[in-house]
Structure to design on (766 residues):
C-alpha cells in the first residue's frame, strides 16, 4: 500500500485546458501534486468556503485570460491506470476539500470559484514500467521548461510555489488574530462547536461571532461568498443562535432616506434662488449674506478722539482753514440762521507723512464728535457690488451717530478719473465712487456727516468728487518750513532727554523738505543711537548720525578700504565742496564732508539748501549753471590729480544729475538762446504709465529740433565742466590741504571748511 501511495504522488506532466475556449498549456507533474497534496490547515486558513468534492475528483477553478463567459470547474483526474484501491486510497487521502485561495498560495495561482473560465487538468497515467526515481528526474528536467510557460499563462513564477507559507505559520497567524477572525477561522470554530451566537450586519458584509466563553470576534464575509444557505444550515445544525443588527429603526431609516434623496435636493433647487432674488440686496448689510460680504469691521469707529490741534505742529495754515469746520460742528445754528450750509466734505492734499490723518483726528477731537476712519483701498474687493455696499454701510452707521466725521485715507485708490480703465468697460472701482458721490450729495442727503479725505494725488481725482457739494474745500497740507520743523521737533522731543548742546533750530535747518513723519523718525533714531551708546541724553552727534542714517544709510565701518581708495574718495568729495564754496552763484552752504562709507556711497558732501528757494520753487539760471559745475567738481578733481586715464566710475550718479538738469533747462525752462522760449515736453497724463510727465514723456518736436536740444545740453555741460576745472586748478594747494585734513579726521564740517578757505586766501568765482 505504501508503494502504491508513493506512486500516486509521482505524476507525469499533464495538460491544463480551458473548457470555454479550448486553449491548453502543459504543466509539470510537480504542479499537479502541489495542487492535490496541499495540507488541510492552510486550506482552512485561506478564508474561502470549500468546493464540493467527490471520491474520484477535485474541483478547481483557475484564472485565465479567457473572454468567453462560463461557470464551470476544472477537474483533476487521478491516473486511470492505477489500481482502484490505489485511486480510492489517493482520493480518500484528499477527501478534505481544496479551497481556491489555498491552491493559489501553493502554486502561485489565484483560484476563485466565481471566475468565468475553467480549466480541466488532465494527468496522463503513469506507465507501469516507470519507476519513481526516473519519474522525479524527468519532472526536474521538464519543470524548468514549464516555468516560462506557466509565467506567461498565469502571470506567476515558480518561486511562488516554493515560498508558500507552511501550515504552522498559517495557524500561528490565524491564532494571533484574536480581535478579528478570518472567515476560515470562523468556519473552523463553528465546526468545532465553540461559537454560541452570530449577529450579521444589515449589509451582509460582516458579522460578530460570540464564543461560548463570551469573547466577541468580528468576521468579514468575502464579497463573492455572501451569506449562503450552506452557512445558515451549518449554523442551525451546530445550534448557533443567529440575528441581524438592524441599527436604526426601519421606519426612521426610510424617513431619512426620503429626506436626503428627495426633500433636500428640492429645498436647495427652489429655496436658494428664492432666498437670493426675493430681497432687494441679498449681499447688503441687511441681506442674508450681509455678515459675510458686507465688510463689517473694515472701518474703525472712535466715539471720541483725544487728539487736539495743539498736538499738530508745522501746518498752521491748514489748521486755520479747518478751524472753521470745527466751529460748524460746534455751533451749527450760528451758520444755519444766516442761511449758510455746512460743508459736505474737505479734501486734504499733501505729500505722504505731512500730517493729514492727524489733522482729521484733531478736527474730530476739537469738535467732540465721533470719528469714523477707513482706507479707500478697503472698499474694493473681488465681489461685484461689495465696494458700493460698504460705502452704504459706512454712511448708514455715520448717520446714526450724526453729527460726526468720516475720514477716507488715500482717496485716489477709488476716486480716480472714471473711464480711464483698460478697455473702458464697467469697473468695480467706478461703482464704488458712484455710490460715494450719491451718499455725499444725493437725493437723501447726509445732514450732520462731514467727509474728510486725504490724498497725495489730487490731480488724478474724478472731477465729480472735487466739485462744490461734494468736497467743497481743498486744504493743502504741505511740507513744513523751518519754523514748522522746529515746532514739530519740539512736539516729538517731549518725553526724550536732550543734551543742553542740542539746537533744534539747527537741526531744523539741516532737514529741509522733511515732513512731520520724517522728523518723528529722526528723533526716534537719535534716541535709539543714544541708548546704544549708553548716553544719559541725546546729543548733537546722535542727531547728526541719525540724519545721515535716514538720508543716506548707516555707516559701513566694517568695510575694508585701502589708502589709495581713501585718497581717491577724498579728492572727489573735496572737489565738490571747493567748487560749491568758490562759486558765488551757488549759495547753498556746505554742511559736512566725509569719506566714511555710508550705504552705497563711498563718501558724501552735505549741503544746506536755501529755505526760501525750496519754499518758492524758483531757481535762477545762474544757480542752475553753478549747480552743474558743483556736480562735476568730483570728476574734475579726479582728472586733475590722477590723470584722464585713471578717472573712475565714481561720478556716474553726478553725470545723471547733470544731464537731467541740463535737459530740463533746455526743454522745459527755456534757458537756451538757440532753442528759445519753448516747452518741448508734453504735460499730458499717460494713464497706463501712471503719471503726468512720467516715464512715457518725450519732447514733442521735429528731429531737427531734437538734435538742436542735444547740442545745447552738451554745451551747457561742457561750460560747467570748464568752470569747475578752472576753480580747482587755480586753488590746487587748497585742494591738497582739504584732502589732507579729510584723510586725518575722515569728516569735516562746514565751519572747518570755511576756515581752510580763508586761510588759503582763495578767490571767489562768479
Amino acid at each position: 500500500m505504501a508503494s502504491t501511495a508513493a506512486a500516486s504522488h509521482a505524476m507525469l506532466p499533464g495538460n491544463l485546458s480551458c473548457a470555454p475556449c479550448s486553449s491548453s498549456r502543459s504543466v509539470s507533474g510537480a504542479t499537479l501534486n502541489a495542487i492535490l497534496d496541499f495540507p488541510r490547515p492552510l486550506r482552512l486558513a485561506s478564508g474561502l468556503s470549500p468546493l464540493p468534492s467527490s471520491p474520484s475528483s477535485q474541483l478547481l477553478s483557475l484564472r485565465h485570460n479567457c473572454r468567453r463567459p462560463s461557470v464551470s470547474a476544472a477537474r483533476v483526474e487521478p491516473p486511470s491506470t492505477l489500481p482502484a484501491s490505489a485511486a480510492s486510497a489517493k482520493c480518500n487521502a484528499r477527501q478534505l476539500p481544496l479551497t481556491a485561495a489555498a491552491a493559489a498560495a501553493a502554486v502561485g495561482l489565484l483560484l476563485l470559484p466565481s471566475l468565468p473560465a475553467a480549466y480541466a487538468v488532465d494527468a496522463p497515467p503513469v506507465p507501469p514500467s516507470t519507476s519513481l526515481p526516473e519519474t522525479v528526474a524527468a519532472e526536474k528536467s521538464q519543470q524548468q521548461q514549464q516555468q516560462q510557460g506557466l509565467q506567461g499563462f498565469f502571470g506567476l513564477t515558480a518561486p511562488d510555489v516554493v515560498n508558500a507559507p507552511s501550515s504552522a505559520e498559517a495557524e500561528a497567524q490565524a491564532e494571533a488574530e484574536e480581535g478579528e477572525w478570518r472567515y476560515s477561522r470562523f468556519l473552523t470554530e463553528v465546526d468545532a462547536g465553540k461559537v454560541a451566537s452570530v449577529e450579521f450586519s444589515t449589509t451582509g458584509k460582516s458579522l460578530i461571532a460570540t464564543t461560548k466563553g463570551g469573547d466577541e470576534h468580528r468576521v468579514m464575509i468575502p464579497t463573492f461568498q455572501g451569506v449562503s444557505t450552506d452557512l445558515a444550515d451549518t449554523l442551525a445544525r451546530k445550534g448557533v443562535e443567529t440575528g441581524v443588527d438592524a441599527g436604526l429603526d426601519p421606519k426612521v431609516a426610510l424617513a431619512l432616506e426620503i429626506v436626503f434623496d428627495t426633500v433636500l435636493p428640492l429645498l436647495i433647487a427652489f429655496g436658494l434662488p428664492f432666498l437670493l432674488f426675493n430681497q432687494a440686496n441679498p449681499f447688503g448689510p441687511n441681506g442674508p449674506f450681509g455678515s459675510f460680504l458686507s465688510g463689517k469691521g473694515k472701518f474703525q469707529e472712535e466715539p471720541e478722539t483725544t487728539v487736539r490741534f495743539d498736538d499738530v505742529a508745522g501746518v498752521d495754515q491748514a489748521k486755520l482753514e479747518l478751524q472753521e469746520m470745527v466751529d460748524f460742528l460746534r455751533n451749527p445754528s450760528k451758520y444755519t440762521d444766516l442761511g449758510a450750509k455746512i460743508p459736505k466734505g474737505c479734501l486734504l492734499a499733501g505729500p505722504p507723512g505731512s500730517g493729514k490723518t492727524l489733522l482729521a483726528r484733531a478736527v474730530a477731537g476739537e469738535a467732540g464728535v465721533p470719528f469714523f476712519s477707513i482706507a479707500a483701498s478697503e472698499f474694493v474687493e473681488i465681489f461685484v457690488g461689495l465696494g458700493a455696499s460698504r460705502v452704504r454701510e459706512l454712511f448708514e452707521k455715520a448717520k446714526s451717530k450724526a453729527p460726526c466725521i468720516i475720514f477716507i485715507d488715500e482717496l485716489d485708490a477709488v476716486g480716480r478719473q472714471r473711464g480711464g480703465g483698460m478697455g473702458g468697460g464697467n469697473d468695480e472701482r467706478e461703482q464704488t465712487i458712484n455710490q460715494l458721490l450719491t451718499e455725499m450729495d444725493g437725493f437723501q442727503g447726509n445732514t450732520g456727516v462731514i467727509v474728510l479725505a486725504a490724498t497725495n494725488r489730487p490731480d488724478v481725482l474724478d472731477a465729480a468728487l472735487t466739485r462744490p457739494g461734494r468736497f467743497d474745500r481743498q486744504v493743502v497740507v504741505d511740507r513744513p518750513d523751518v519754523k514748522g520743523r522746529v515746532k514739530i521737533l519740539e512736539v516729538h522731543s517731549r518725553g526724550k532727554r536732550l543734551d543742553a548742546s542740542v539746537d533744534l533750530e539747527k537741526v531744523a535747518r539741516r532737514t529741509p523738505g522733511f515732513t512731520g513723519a520724517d522728523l518723528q523718525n529722526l528723533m526716534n533714531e537719535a534716541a535709539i543711537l543714544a541708548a546704544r551708546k549708553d548716553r544719559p541724553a541725546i546729543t548733537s552727534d546722535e542727531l547728526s548720525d541719525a540724519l545721515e542714517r535716514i538720508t543716506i544709510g548707516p555707516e559701513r565701518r566694517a568695510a575694508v578700504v585701502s589708502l589709495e581708495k581713501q585718497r581717491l574718495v577724498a579728492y572727489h568729495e573735496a572737489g565738490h565742496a571747493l567748487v560749491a564754496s568758490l562759486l558765488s552763484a551757488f549759495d547753498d552752504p556746505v554742511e559736512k564732508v566725509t569719506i566714511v562709507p555710508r550705504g552705497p556711497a563711498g563718501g558724501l558732501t552735505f549741503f544746506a539748501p536755501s529755505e526760501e528757494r525750496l519754499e518758492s520753487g524758483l531757481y535762477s539760471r545762474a544757480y542752475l549753471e553753478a549747480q552743474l559745475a558743483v556736480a562735476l567738481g568730483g570728476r574734475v578733481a579726479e582728472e586733475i590729480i590722477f590723470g584722464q586715464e585713471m578717472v573712475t566710475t565714481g561720478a556716474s550718479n553726478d553725470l545723471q544729475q547733470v544731464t537731467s538738469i541740463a535737459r530740463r533747462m533746455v526743454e522745459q525752462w527755456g534757458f537756451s538762446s538757440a532753442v528759445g522760449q519753448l516747452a518741448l515736453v508734453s504735460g499730458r497724463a499717460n494713464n497706463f504709465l501712471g503719471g503726468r510727465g512720467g516715464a512715457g514723456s518725450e519732447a514733442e518736436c521735429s528731429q531737427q529740433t531734437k538734435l538742436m536740444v542735444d547740442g545745447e545740453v552738451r554745451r551747457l555741460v561742457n561750460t560747467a565742466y570748464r568752470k569747475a576745472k578752472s576753480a580747482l586748478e587755480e586753488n590746487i594747494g587748497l585742494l591738497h590741504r582739504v584732502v589732507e585734513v579729510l584723510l586725518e579726521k575722515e569728516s569735516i564740517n562746514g565751519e572747518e571748511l570755511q576756515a581752510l578757505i580763508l586761510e588759503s586766501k582763495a578767490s571767489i568765482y562768479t
